[in-house]
Structures are given as structure tokens and as C-alpha cells.
Amino acid sequence: MLPTGPAKKVSVYVIEGQTYHGVACYAAILDYLFFRGISDATVTRGVAGFGTDHKLHTSRLVEVSDQMPVKVEFIETPERVQAVLTKLTEIASHGLVEIHDTYVINPTTSKERSEPAAPPVKLESKAKMMRILIGEHDRWNDQPLYHALVQAMRANDIAGLTWKKPTPKPSMPPLPSAS
Questions:
Q1: How many angstroms separate the CA atoms of 58 and 48, rounded?
Q2: Fewer CB near the last or first residue (10 Å), C or N of the chain?
């Protein structure tokens, strides 16, 4: 929870169909902020808008419905904003990042105000690698199984998570027939 006092309000504008490493850009931003301990963030989807291309995008037109503006907003201390800004601008490379000075009024008890927020901790230790092999069409709760596994591992702070689609093996040429 943010203490009462000066803060920064950050708004990140991206397009719904924009991706970052194969993930929706707004979702990648939200994940990044979540795992960096940002106090809270909100994603808002526009129903109509236009960008620097001056083309009108509206959710009523199916062919451009993935081109709707999306805004990710959060408020944090100036130091925490500075710590996430470089990666945030990388993720939103084709979008816009806007930062405003603001003042947070937090009506908490005086005991809660006096306790400083714990800084993020970098964990360093030996690790084990786990490889999970699944079928491309495996599903769980109406979504691809690999999405469910990624979400579950992120929710449990599993580090270094990647998934990749296997490359098909070349077929063997036929053996020559004995004539």
C-alpha cells in the first residue's frame, strides 16, 4: 500500500493486438508490474479511438476490433516508477508512456503508516530445471494447457519460465528396395 505523499501516476497506451514476445502487450506489462511488486494496476480497453496514424478504430468493426486502444495505469512512488521505467518502455515500444506527478492520500491508521514497505528481494540460490512435455492440443479449463501452466507457475513465483513449440523432426527417406 502506498504511503500518503508525493507519487507518480503512470499511464501506458498500447494497441490491443500489439504483442511482446508472443503475449498481448498489455498483459506483458501487467505481469511485469505484478512481479515487480507495484501496488496495483488497472487495464482499461477503449471502445473507439485513433492513434498517430489518424485511422478511426472502433469495436463495431470486426476487422479492426483487435486494434482498440488499451490503457494500463498505476500509481507508485517516484523511486519504484524509475526502477520499472526502462523495461516498461521496452515492452510498450510502439505505444506511449505518460507520467504525471500526483499526491496520494491514504486513510490508514497511524500504525500502518509508520511501517515502511518491504523492498523487493532478489533470490539467489541453486535451482532445478523441470521440463513438462505436453501435446499442442491439450487443454485445461477451456484454454490451452501451456497457458494454464504458465499462469500457475507465475502465480507461484516460479522463475525462468519458458515454453516453446517443438520443431518437427525431418522424415526419414525410404529405404532402397532390394531387387
A1: 4
A2: C
